[in-house]
Specification:
2 strands, mainly alpha, binds zinc ion, elongated
């Protein structure tokens, strides 16, 4: 039970920080929460805690964020043509 309570608390703190960050800088999709873990909104893979702490409010894993950036750059190139 202690483990579950710990996990719940970590999740609560992480998610509160993420929510606060989003009110300041609400970009990108909101992360999913699956089984008490913050997960990528795109591929549903768990987002590492280090990434969540480094990028508060992040809703995408590294792979999906990079794909999104690459796609955004392509869009910009198209517009320039
Ligand atoms: Zn992902």
């Amino acid at each position: 039970m202690a483990n579950e309570a710990d996990r719940a608390q970590i999740h609560e703190e992480t998610f509160r920080a993420a929510s606060l960050a989003r009110t300041k800088n609400a970009t990108g999709p909101e992360p999913l929460v699956i089984d008490g873990q913050v997960c990528c909104a795109n591929c549903e893979e768990p987002i590492p805690e280090a990434r969540l702490k480094a990028l508060l409010g992040v809703g995408l894993c590294v792979n999906c964020a990079e794909e999104g950036e690459a796609a955004a750059e392509k869009e910009e190139e198209k517009e320039e043509e």
